[in-house]
Write a sequence for this structure.
């Protein structure tokens, strides 16, 4: 197991690896693209509604490093035509994230029912490169976040495809925070599944769109 210090991720890394696994691991920014205008729609077997995540084309420099661009993803409830539910912001209505080939993947903030929350330092989700067993540890906002690269292999059963391979699974632990939980990502698509602390089961990708900016 490699335990990667957060300070080293932000201040000490440079360069990037190739498309596939290299000496230092998989290039993690390939798994978390934030280019273009994107939407992701997720289904959950325990809910009648869907959750649609929309990537804003707007982005801004991170407060700790001007070369890092932080992107905003809004999460909203989408009701079925014959279902009884109320559309509007989801429980976690916004995430603010970055990912690049120099520093890795970070969560800079979120918005939920209790308001807007910023993280300084940001929550480290991945390093620049990753291999199974890597752990990124962050202490921020009075909470611990230990993000483990738990495995890479077949994706969970997804409505969008039942044949996808090479999903990376991350387990984020450390307490009872809304962002603790399980994350699945696949190269070129970003998150394709997640189960946060307050979810009874996995949210699974059912549709996605992409347009150039």
């Amino acid at each position: 197991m490699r335990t990667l210090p957060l300070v080293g991720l932000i201040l000490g890394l440079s360069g990037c690896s190739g498309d596939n696994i290299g000496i230092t691991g998989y290039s993690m920014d390939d798994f978390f693209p934030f280019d273009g205008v994107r939407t992701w729609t997720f289904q959950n077997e325990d809910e009648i509604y869907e959750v649609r995540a929309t990537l804003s084309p707007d982005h801004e420099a991170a407060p700790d490093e001007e070369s890092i661009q932080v992107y905003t993803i809004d999460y909203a409830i989408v009701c079925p035509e014959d279902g009884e539910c109320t559309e509007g912001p989801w429980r976690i209505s916004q995430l603010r994230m970055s990912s690049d080939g120099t520093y890795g993947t970070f969560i800079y903030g979120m918005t939920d029912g209790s308001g807007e929350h910023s993280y300084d330092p940001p929550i480290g989700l991945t390093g620049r490169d990753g291999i199974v067993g890597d752990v990124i540890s962050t202490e921020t906002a009075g909470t611990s976040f230990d993000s483990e690269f738990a495995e890479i292999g077949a994706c969970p059963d997804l409505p969008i495809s039942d044949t996808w391979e090479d999903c990376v699974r991350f387990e984020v632990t450390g307490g009872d925070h809304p962002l603790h939980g399980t994350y699945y990502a696949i190269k070129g698509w970003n998150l394709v599944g997640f189960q946060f602390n307050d979810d009874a089961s996995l949210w699974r990708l059912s549709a996605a769109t992409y347009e150039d900016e």
In short: The radius of gyration is 16 Å. Residues 3-13+29-211 form one domain. The chain has one domain: 3-13+29-211.
